[in-house]
Specification:
- This is LysM domain-containing protein.
- It comes from Nesterenkonia rhizosphaerae.
- InterPro entries: Bact_Kbp (IPR052196), LysM (IPR018392), LysM_dom_sf (IPR036779).
- Pfam families: LysM.
- By secondary structure, the chain is mainly beta.
- Helices cover 13% and strands 37% of the residues.
- The strands form four sheets. Strands 1, 4, 7, 9 and 10 form a five-stranded antiparallel β-sheet that branches.
- It is rod-shaped.
């Protein structure tokens, strides 16, 4: 029975598998890639240009890691086509599904998004289907922040404190609002408070009459 394999330079003694996050494809790989490129383990530097001087630089955050590598896919019998397996591999990246690799070097740990997935055809079957291809992977580290909703109810707002009810005062002959404020509130400058509480009775703050009964604010 022909065996599907990833062809590369070094045999891997452990089973390596490419697994897609939605479960749509899981392909066993026969070997670990001979070489790969790794980028993004450094901080992201932001530059602000300045006329006639060196730009200002600062660390803006951490870059997402990126990995690029190539593998070859084919049957030992070149009459067999890899179209079906290749289509399974191509379908998930086209939908933005993340992939991870088991038993690979530690730099491959975690989930990755397939930024580009290109295929070079090396050999065709007698009926012009793909028999052996080289797969070129460009991956970028998946960094997804989950929004967690707190189950703790928001604190209840306290109702506004009620102003304590003040006393009342009956106007006597010779009284004025400032004199009442001085006697009852301890400050003659608080007469506008009395005026505002009793606007229904006081049309002119300079004219008040004996017998009028005014509400007073708290002292």
């Amino acid at each position: 029975m022909p065996r599907l394999r990833i062809i590369n330079g070094r045999t891997n003694t452990r089973q390596v598998t490419a697994q897609f996050r939605d479960g749509s494809a899981s392909l066993p790989l026969a070997v670990v890639p001979n070489s790969f490129t790794l980028r993004g383990d450094n901080a992201e530097v932001e530059r602000t240009p300045r006329s006639g001087r060196k730009p200002l630089t600062r660390v803006a955050g951490q870059q997402a890691r990126q990995i690029g590598f190539s593998t070859r896919l084919g049957y030992t019998d070149w009459h067999r086509s890899v179209d079906l397996q290749l289509n399974r591999l191509r379908r998930a990246p086209a939908r933005g599904v993340a992939v991870r690799f088991t038993n690979m070097p530690s730099v491959f740990a975690g989930w990755w998004l397939v930024e580009s997935f290109n295929v070079d055809v090396e050999q065709l079957t007698p009926d012009n289907r793909m028999s052996r291809v080289t797969l070129h992977w460009q991956l970028v580290e998946l960094v997804d922040a989950e929004v967690k909703l707190s189950r703790t109810p928001p604190p209840r707002r306290k109702p506004p404190a009620r102003q304590p009810v003040g006393s009342t005062y009956t106007v006597k002959s010779g009284d004025s609002l400032s004199l009442i404020a001085l006697r009852k509130l301890g400050n003659a400058m608080r007469w506008p408070e009395i005026f505002n509480l009793n606007r229904s009775q006081i049309k002119n703050p300079n004219l008040i009459y004996p017998g009028q009964k005014f509400r007073l604010p708290p002292r």
